[in-house]
Amino acid sequence: MVRQANAVDFWRGLALVFIFINHIPGIYYGRFTHANYSLSDSADLFVFLAGWALRLMVGTPERRQSTWYLVLRLGGRAITLYAAQILITMIALAVLAGCAILLDNPLLLEWHNAAAVFHDPVTTHVGLALITHQLGYFDILPLYVVLMLMAPIIAIIDRYIPQALLPISLLFYLATLLIPIPFRTWPVEGLWFFNPLAWQLIFVLGFVMAREDGLGGFVRRHIVPIRWISVPIVLAGVAFMLSGWWPDPTKFPRPRLLFLIDKTYDTPPRLIQFLALIALMSATYPYILRASKMLVNFLSMLGRNSLYVFCVGSILSLAGQIVRHIYQGNLLIDTAVVISGIAIMALTAWLPEWREDVRVRRGTAAAQPS
Amino acid sequence: MARRCESQARHRRGAAVLTLSAVCATILGASAWAQSNGQPASPPMPAPFSHDCQAGTTATASDSPLPNVAAALAKHKKIKILAIGASASAGRGARHGGYTGEARQILRQAIKGLDVEMINRGISGELATQAAARIKNEVALLEPDMVLWQVGTNDALAYVPIEDLKATVVDTLTWLKEHKIDTVLVGLQYIDRMEQDEHYRKVRDMLRDVAAKENVLIVRRYEAQRLLSQAAVSGGGLFPDEFQRTEAGYTCLAQYMARAITLGIFGPGGLGPRSAPPAIGPQPQQPPSAPPTRM
Asked: Are residues A325 and B90, on separate chains, in Cβ contact within 8 Å?
């Protein structure tokens, strides 16, 4: 049975649409996503809500699953995500190679870190399998795979010493920024676009805040003053994004990663602004629901099927870039790309729900006496 | 199948010739960087290009100096180069750092005693405006002596307006100069198909103009690759297939870059004598206003 539309699925669906648009650099509609007015972007929201979803998988203290079952279930989820990453990477490589041949343009082979796959295939295929070689814009799932590999540990700590979970997570986060601890790519030299040791904090925050007690309970009880504190933080972020003003990063005291706005390490200014943003935006959901139930239902459908939609959206973003390149990116093409992309993402979400619906109806019909 | 094997064998032969040529050129061209009292006795000769990277009458790098790198070298410091750009590690041997790794190796062989640290921070697909923000952060974190910025390709493919791209590049170059960090720009590469794209040509020309105006060194691989392409069309060259030529172009790029950096350090304004810089070929030809006709 498909679950009803809710705030988590709605925001997740919105994040998926924004990720699809933001992954087509230069597209006209990119200016309408919150990434242009906020220090954080849809990636933060996606990972936070992934942590929230982990809480739903793990269950409440009243409905506990056995530890071994939980470990196997979360491990299985990590394998599913890994398989999805390998699948979409291979499709992306085929799209790039096919378009390079069709358009007689070898430049496409170098797009998005694909060059190493074609120029040095022997070593790079090992990197692809190890997910240490990631194509540009295909770098969120590797983070998610690592987070899901950490998930059993997170769930076990939460079960036996819940009050220690957030301090431990914060400790790892600070150590990663202070030392710093880089997550290196291989065989191409570089860093993971998302450092999992830094990004685990936002994942754990989502997991912890989804709980009715502890920090989650505290936030729910004090949400009004928290929102008042959030207003200037969010406004400062908007002012920075519109004016481009931020102190010279070389003038910051060391360790500088604590003060920079950096996505790889999800640095404190970005993280704090994100938390302020969700505190404020969470207040808007009831109004959006009242204003447009159709929109809420639509985005919730995308959110309910987030992995499928994300995978298809990633390929669509790449296709959108190539289409924009062929037609030299104008408003008409950008509009066609966005509309057709969101329509295909919706179809992707609708199909499994329709299949499930048919299965349930057949089951019900079979159970009824003839 | 046989054709493919033949093509691969030709490709491998070509690659071997290029690599061998580069190494020979380095050994022949590099003179010892004799140091006495912390100063080099004589500037090393830049390594000549390998056979297939000799770009005829077209210069492959402007001769702007790298004063901050030269100063770092004079103090016996290690030179730290930050490589930013979409394909910073493209080329053969990804695990050895791609073309930036090759350039580092050529530089180390050309300038004895030189310790070069090449830090790759390329992010695929990002536009110049995102790279510009990251350059500032990475400079704050890594404190490099030089930034090697491969810029423009993604913006050209995404049709970012020229003026926006120009403003981003100029702002970033100014910021780097203010922070006493030298910059080497790596311009667009030559692709037959893209030669017909007006926006692509405009981005190429804009980068050249900005580099000249800001007195920043630019590796002009476009002209060199175009000559390679024309040689291939007329029956010469080791890589008749454009896909292979593009890949081989990275080996040439590593050589161009190593030479440009050597000349930038030891040319006028750097550690070298206040005379004319070592010749790297005649001044670049003016870019054609229209796509060249195929020979």
From this structure: no
CA-nearest of A237, A223, A282 to A52 is A282
Is the distance from CB of B53 to CB of B252 less than 8 angstroms? yes
- Hey, what are A2's tokens? 């498909």
Question: How much of chain A is in helix, strand and coil states, percent to nearest 5?
Answer: 75, 0, 25
Q: 10 Å Cβ neighbour count for A68?
A: 9
Distance of alpha carbon A22 from alpha carbon A29, whole angstroms: 9
Distances from the Cα of B116 to the Cαs of A92, B97, B112, B218, in angstroms? 35, 13, 11, 19
- Read off the pLDDT of residues B196-219 as tens digits, 9 standing for 90 and up: 899 999 999 999 999 999 989 888
Question: Is residue B189 packed enough to be buried (19+ CB in 10 Å), middle (13-18) or exposed (0-12)?
Answer: buried
**Chain position carrying tokens 């004895």:** B112
Residues of B in contact with A324 (CB under 8 A): 158-159
SS3 A329: coil
What does the block give as tokens for A185?
């790519």
Chain segment B2-45, per-residue pLDDT in tens: 444 444 445 444 444 444 444 344 333 333 343 433 444 355 66
Half-sphere exposure of A110 (CA within 13 A, CB side): 27
Is the Cβ–Cβ distance between B86 and A137 less than 8 Å?
no
ipTM: 0.90
CB burial of A95-114 (b: ≥16 within 10 Å; e: otherwise) equals bbeebbeeeebbbbbbbbbb
CA distance B129 to A156: 43
pLDDT above 70 coverage of chain B, percent: 57
B120: chain A residues, CB-CB within 8 Å: 188-190
C-alpha A327 chain-centroid distance: 29
Q: Name the residue in chain B with its Cα closest to that of A179.
A: B141
Inform me whether the pLDDT recorded for A352 exceeds 70: yes
Cα angle value A51/A57/A58 (rounded, 5°): 90
Has this prediction a pTM greater than 0.90? no
What are the φ/ψ torsions at residue B124 (nearest 5 degrees)? -70, 140
**Looking at chain A, how many residues does it have?**
370
Q: How close A286 gets to chain B, by Cα (Å)?
A: 35
Q: Does A256 lie at the interface with B, CB-CB under 8 angstroms? A: yes
